Amino acid sequence: MSTIADNIGLVSQRIRAAAQAVQRDESSVHLLAVSKTKPAQAVREAYAAGMRDFGENYLQEALGKQAELTDLPLSWHFIGPIQSNKTRAIAENFAWVHSVDRLKIAQRLSEQRPADLPALNICIQVNVSGEASKSGCTPADLPALAEAISALPRLKLRGLMAIPEPTEDRAAQDAAFAAVRDLQASLNLGLDTLSMGMSHDLESAIAQGATWVRIGTALFGARDYGQP
Ligand SMILES: *Cc1c(COP(=O)(O)O)cnc(C)c1O
């Protein structure tokens, strides 16, 4: 049976190979370990193998894990859908939010970010798969949203995040990720982050410029949503 440490080694090799294939410096691609549904012990194992950044989708689950792991210097990223009544806890307990897709949520995060913490790093989630996805702002709405968010005081707009419709077709993967990269470039806001690529499509995402790949299954194994 492979361990989390083995899996981190394998994913790191995939990242290295994907970066080399397009003459990118592998250090420009960061690995976000998506620990949703996995116990605090799995995070501990990943930490022992060198991981520092962890992504969570469900607030209550994340807060529980954070409480068990206060002895470790971890950086937490919120990557799931955000309801208004969850913004305060997110603003107080995370370093990054990858899944902002409307101004109201960004305004609340800015107002609620504690003054003693650094600005909250933000990615705008953009929907490049049309009706196939419910989350993410439309490409048409993106420029105004990005302008407005970049003006909010307690946030630091870093870039875009996307979850394209899953496909095994490399050309389709490339087209979706290239669209995200081009949207980011067209904003002209000097953004440095593209959060895109998951276990099945990280090679394509890296070829198109990903700076964070968000990896769950390939690090921690399949998720079992039946076992809370
Ligand atoms: C679950 C999740 C991931 C990780 O997906 P895997 O296919 O398990 O690597 C990445 N990003 C988001 C937003 C997720 O919800």
Automatic annotation (TrEMBL):
Protein name: Pyridoxal phosphate homeostasis protein
UniProt cross-references to InterPro entries, sorted A to Z: Ala_racemase_N (IPR001608), PLP-binding_barrel (IPR029066), PyrdxlP_homeostasis (IPR011078)
GO MF annotations, alphabetized: pyridoxal phosphate binding
Cofactor entry: pyridoxal 5'-phosphate
Alanine racemase N-terminal domain sequence ranges: 14-223
Family according to the record: Belongs to the pyridoxal phosphate-binding protein YggS/PROSC family.
Entry function: Pyridoxal 5'-phosphate (PLP)-binding protein, which is involved in PLP homeostasis.
Regions that span the bilayer: none
Keywords: Pyridoxal phosphate
NCBIfam families per UniProt: YggS family pyridoxal phosphate-dependent enzyme (TIGR00044)
Residue list for modification N6-(pyridoxal phosphate)lysine: K36
